[in-house]
Design goal:
The chain is α/β, with parallel strands linked by helices and about 475 residues long. It is built from twelve helices and ten strands. Strands 7-1-4-3-2-6-5-8 form an eight-stranded mixed sheet, with no helix packed on it. The chain has a two-stranded antiparallel sheet with strand order 9-10. A hairpin with a 2-residue loop joins strand 2 and strand 3. The radius of gyration is 57 Å and the shape is rod-shaped.
Length: about 475
């Protein structure tokens, strides 16, 4: 058969391409120089207590990356030696541990190199990893034998029940279990990445645990109280349900209440702010009133104490109604004259007289002991004054007289009389001013009940019709309190 030149050229090109492909596969993929001649590779021997299922051409990994393979597994007098062929371009620290693991449950063992640090010298050709730094997985045969012995120890019926219950419990939960296992793996990976922080937490968790130990009594008390509250909630379940069911309507009513008081509430709160400032200023006084409140309540209750738990037909209060009128006499010093005072029956409200009108007698006088002159000054303890201005100033209260002689209109508001001046005298002198003239005597006259006629102090005859028996008006006790028309 005669082949043309073109065919010979095509055959030559095919042979050249095939040889090039074979060389690339031999050098790049099959790595014939490395495996056959040992180029760019070095060997390290690992001493193992047993083979553990390791076989020739098993993978060798460093930090999860494949770095070589097991070249030979041979028996020794003390165990097993595995010769590893490692890549020369990857520097592996010599201070490490070698562990044999399985990639799956059916085998496929590999050697994992786990460095202890990154500062030791790299492995070299001929190095040996001693047995004390190597581990192998447990023998699967022993595990299966132990499992078989455990299963044989369980009665058949019980084992069937356990399998059935396990199927009932886990049946159909494959995705959830897979997600659980995957989450556990992610947790382990994250824990590995944050190993320093976890180690620090473990080392420093002791003080926190000590505080829990020291407060164990408080925690037990809190748990007991919580149990009591829970028990009460369980006992009053109906009431709690009622509260929850009616909470919406109650909240709606509360909202409507707020809507109704919205126009006036700011004014009330503003006024309460003023009241609050006064309460803060008079805090000692309010506190003293609260201290006296129980005593006052006891005094009020003592009125009926003697008749308590008795069978008396007519019960009364043991309280003296002796009013002691005009004992001591009323204070008139510092007020307007009687001619300028208004009748109590008038109901209009003209402007008040200018100035301060109060009982102006000595503060230690027995008259009107609860008068304005004895009001304690809150901001200046120990000082008493009738007005806030006098309390806040350095002015000292000065009485007009001893209270037994009348002196009115001290501010000259209506009568035009001059403002009284303090008593004068030498320092330390206790001399009193001359007594004021006695007030004029009160005139009194007898009248005729039949006609209401009487003779006045001036000797003239007067008649008041409402004093007669046949008068049609002015015969009640209220009329006695009203001024004459």
């Amino acid at each position: 058969m005669h082949m043309t030149r073109r065919i010979w050229i095509q055959i030559a090109i095919f042979i050249a391409v095939s040889l090039a492909a074979f060389v690339v596969m031999s050098l790049g993929f099959i790595r014939v120089p490395s495996f056959v001649f040992g180029i760019d590779r070095y060997t390290v021997t690992v001493e193992l207590p047993e083979a553990g299922g390791l076989y020739q051409r098993a993978n060798v990994t460093y930090r999860g990356t494949e770095v070589g393979e097991v070249k030979e597994v041979r028996l020794t007098d003390s165990g097993v030696e595995a010769v590893m062929s490692l890549k020369s371009d990857i520097k592996i620290p010599s201070d490490l541990e070698a562990e044999v693991h399985s990639q799956s449950a059916v085998g496929e063992q590999y050697v994992a190199l786990l460095p202890r640090n990154a500062t030791s010298a790299p492995l070299r050709n001929g190095d040996v990893i001693r047995r004390d730094r190597t581990t192998v997985p447990p023998d699967i045969n022993e595990l299966l034998n132990a499992t078989n012995r455990g299963l044989e120890a369980i009665p058949g019926d019980s084992l069937k029940t356990a399998v059935d219950e396990a199927y009932t419990a886990l049946g159909g939960l494959g995705p959830e279990l897979a997600r659980f296992i995957k989450g556990g793996s992610s947790l382990a990976i994250d824990s590995r990445a944050n190993l320093d922080a976890l180690t620090n937490l473990t080392d420093n968790v002791a003080p926190i645990l000590d505080t829990q130990t020291d407060t164990s009594d408080e925690i037990q008390a809190w748990a007991a109280h919580l149990a009591t509250v829970t028990k009460q909630l369980q006992t009053n379940d109906t009431a709690v349900r009622g509260v929850l069911q009616n909470a919406a309507s109650a909240a709606d009513e509360l909202r409507q209440l707020f809507d109704r008081v919205k126009p006036t509430l700011p004014i009330v709160l503003a006024n309460l702010a003023s009241v609050g400032q006064v309460a803060v200023t008079y805090h000692p006084n309010l506190e003293y009133l609260l201290v006296l409140l129980p005593t006052g309540t006891e005094a009020i209750q003592a009125v009926s104490l003697a008749n308590r738990n008795t069978e008396q037909r007519y019960k009364g209060s043991f309280l003296s109604f002796n009013l002691n009128l005009n004992l001591p006499p009323a204070c008139t010093t510092g007020f307007l004259p009687a001619q300028q005072q208004r009748a109590a029956s008038l109901i209009d409200y003209p402007p008040a007289a200018a100035g301060d009108v109060y009982c102006r007698i000595p503060q230690d006088s027995s008259l009107n002991v609860r008068g304005a002159r004895n009001i304690p000054c809150v901001t200046k303890p120990g000082k008493r004054a009738p007005t806030a201005a006098m309390c806040e100033s350095d002015e000292v209260y000065v009485p007009l007289n001893d209270g037994f002689s009348w002196k009115g209109d001290p501010n000259a508001t209506l009568s035009g009389q001059p403002v009284p001046q303090p008593r004068t005298g030498t320092p330390g002198s206790t001399a009193l001013p001359p007594p004021a003239p006695a007030p004029p005597p009160i005139a009194a006259a007898e009248y005729d009940p039949a006609t209401g006629s009487y003779v006045g102090p001036d000797g003239k005859l007067y008649t008041q019709a409402n004093l007669a028996h046949d008068a049609s008006e002015g015969q009640t006790w209220q009329d006695m309190l009203l001024p004459p028309k």
